[in-house]
Amino acid sequence: MTEARPGDAAASRAQSQVGDTVESSAGSAPERAGTAPTVVVAGGGTAGHIEPAMALADAVMRLRPDARVVALGTERGLENQLVPARGYPLELVPPVPMPRKPTLDLLKLPVKVADSVRRTRQVLDRLGADVVVGFGGYVSLPAYLAARGRVPIVVHEANQHAGLANKVGARFAARVVAAVPGTSLPGAEVVGIPLRRSITALDRAGLRAEARKHFGLDPDAPALLVFGGSQGARSINAAVSQAAKYFADAGVSVLHAHGPKNTLAVQEFPGRPPYVPVPYLERMDLAYAAADLVLCRSGAMTVAEVSAVGLPAVFVPLPHGNGEQALNARPAVDAGAALLVPDEELTSDKVAELVVPLVTDASRLSRMSAAAVGLGHREADEVLAAIVLEQAEKRRR
């Protein structure tokens, strides 16, 4: 699922519609028992927003073990599973989803924004927030507006084309950072995307045997990893599963995450390397270690992780939105680390023609892997954490 991306005019309206409700002079900081900073991260909704927020949280705790990190989320977001699993407290606030088209919901937006901002501000005051870090998405907009003039804001943008929330937040943020050059937010510093240390420090070769045993894959056969984001992708599911016989005939194992809301029936071929469908991959580190090649969407987080671990890729950008996933994939494609297949061209025949020969070509995969390793910013988590803690210290002075 992609975030709605209205233009700059919409960003101006969203900021002004709440009027005096979000205007507040900066008061004195609430009394605190100690000197430890409180960092509030806002990046709920999808894994692409949540995972960098959690990677930042981990980095903050490495740099300042006495710090407190709290995540903001909504009651329906994936953060309800991912954030507690990572050991961080989660505070729920009302989301502010932007209507994609002019509807009656648009007329209700000012009231919804004002209510969400009021309730989010109460959370920030109760926590004694020293800095708010937003990664875009529905929960970031009320967080930015609630923090405005009261708590320093750091905005992180993962895509070249920023979403509405980050366009608004960047207008009064203390620091604006981006994953890639050329983002639409003026003055953004490029730091990369914060990634989990289990990814940036992954020893794919050393974990291969354990990873393949974990998923029930053939220990020696070439292996393809397939996923379409946290919710899966029907076009990818259909095209790859319908090519099961081609993989079996070529002696290729497949690990396919089809999404928790989808089902996948795959023909079995006894005596051949297995095709293993799973709803969701909780151990992405082991999934990457098990694979020789990945076929997946090209969300910013996915591209960053795949490049960081040196995994050759076939990217199939999401066909909706404004083309940001194709832009995300372009550096890896230009470097020779990945191929790009438009979603409408992905068929079982295309998989047989392109993917099967690639996953069985060890020499070409080795060259692609070497090209991938040079991409990205592997220390982005601690670079961003240092920026965030600096703003928190300024707030406390």
TrEMBL record:
Keywords: Cell cycle, Cell division, Cell membrane, Cell shape, Cell wall biogenesis/degradation, Glycosyltransferase, Membrane, Peptidoglycan synthesis, Transferase. Its EC number is 2.4.1.227. The keyword Transferase applies. Residues 224-380 form the Glycosyl transferase family 28 C-terminal domain. UDP-N-acetyl-alpha-D-glucosamine binds at T46, A47, G48, N159, R196, S230, Q325. InterPro entries: GlcNAc_MurG (IPR006009), Glyco_trans_28_C (IPR007235), GlycoTrans_28_N (IPR004276). Residues 13-27 have a biased composition (Polar residues). One of its GO terms (molecular function) is undecaprenyldiphospho-muramoylpentapeptide beta-N-acetylglucosaminyltransferase activity. This is UDP-N-acetylglucosamine--N-acetylmuramyl-(pentapeptide) pyrophosphoryl-undecaprenol N-acetylglucosamine transferase. It comes from Saccharomonospora xinjiangensis XJ-54. The lineage of its organism: Bacteria, Bacillati, Actinomycetota, Actinomycetes, Pseudonocardiales.
